[in-house]
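Changelog note: in this version the structure field was regenerated for every chain. One regenerated record is shown below for reference.
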Amino acid sequence: MLIPLLFAALLVCACTMAAVRGGPSERFAAAVILVGSITSGVAQHMAGHIWDGEDLGTLAIDLAMLATFVAIMLVSRRFWPIWVVAAQFLTVLAHLGPLFRQSHISIPFAISEQIWSWWILGVLIIVMKRQKRPHIAAQ
């Protein structure tokens, strides 16, 4: 129960930092992460199982997030979206193991999915910490 709470705290921290300090790419990425995290939780709850073989609902959400991150990467002038796309691609790849083999092997793949989600939040937080504060025009 502690790990989901820590993830939620990190998610709130990353989204708040993006809202306060981020540009359009950072804000949109934070919104995608927030919506993706919530809908993934709902999809897993509706499926009635977590990390038990195939999870096509979560796979669809992760694919949609990947497509959105690719779009952000293509319009951004910053380097960080490339790292986010790579991590999200690895998250999508982690879905393939349980799809091809229904057994105890789904747990390591589920852990891999979680690790890359944490990585994406960490990248967003680091980007926000390193970004200069937005300039407020003097009136």
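Spot check on this record: The chain has one domain: 7-130. Residues 135-139 have pLDDT under 50 and may be disordered.
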